[in-house]
Design a protein that fits this description.
about 240 residues; mainly alpha
Length: about 240
């Protein structure tokens, strides 16, 4: 068997293992059993270790896939608004606020992704998996969606949306200054503070809906979400 064929077979088997593992997330949560996954894939338990050395390695692969899937959805939503704004401006029909539209598109992308993949969402934003510690190489994928928020804040700053910002003081000031350097160098730390607060509100609202905390309290969950996120756009200053 050639190396190219072996690589394709390995990739197919790896994908099949991850697909089965995702089904186990739906039924068993993050308490994955490699033995059970191997059984459902149709291989002996020892064979699965050729692809994933441990449960934690398989969990890491699933976590990376989830973060990257969410990141791609958020990036696509933001890009769609940016492109639409560019076309509208070129046609002389630029009559709407692209920054707030980008924020709303990102928010809806997060919610839509979570509702379509609730078990993957729970894996990365639900309760920590006992005994599991994510390796540092998950950080780029984990921050992929947040970098889109940084791009929105950066563009808002370049458009003068945050004039005469009062400097932050206190223990959190240094943290937000560092975040500003990483996410949006031209945005004042106070604006970054509001942006991150809105980001937490976004995921908190999604989590409340996904994990049943809005039942018997909110009827139209989509309208509730829309209202909350528009309020956050105002809070940020978009």
């Amino acid at each position: 068997m050639s190396s190219g064929i072996r690589a394709r077979v390995r990739a197919q088997m790896t994908d099949e293992i991850k697909t089965v593992a995702r089904r186990h997330l739906a039924s068993d949560g993050a308490n994955l059993s490699l033995r059970a996954v191997a059984r459902d894939v149709g291989v002996v338990s020892s064979a699965i270790y050729r692809y994933f050395a441990s449960r934690d390695e398989l969990l890491t692969a699933l976590i990376l896939d989830a973060y990257n899937s969410l990141g791609a959805a958020v990036e696509a939503a933001d890009l769609g608004v940016v492109e639409a704004a560019g076309k509208a401006a070129a046609a002389g029909a630029f009559e709407w606020d692209a920054l707030s539209a980008r924020w709303m598109a990102v928010c809806h992308a997060v919610r839509d992704w979570a509702l379509a993949a609730p078990h993957e969402y729970a894996l990365i934003y639900g309760s920590p998996v006992p005994g599991y510690r994510a390796p540092s190489d998950t950080v780029p994928a984990a921050t992929r969606a947040a970098r889109v928020l940084g791009g929105i804040l950066q563009d808002a700053a370049s458009q003068g949306r945050f004039p005469a910002e009062e400097p932050l003081t206190g223990p959190a000031a240094e943290n937000f200054a560092q975040l500003a350097t990483w996410l949006c160098p031209d945005a004042p730390p106070a604006a970054v503070s509001r942006g991150m607060g809105a980001w937490v509100q976004l995921f908190g609202t999604v989590s409340f809906e996904l994990f049943g905390q809005l039942e018997n309290a909110v009827g139209d969950k989509e309208a509730f979400f829309e209202h909350q996120m528009r309020a956050q756009a105002v809070y940020i200053g978009l």
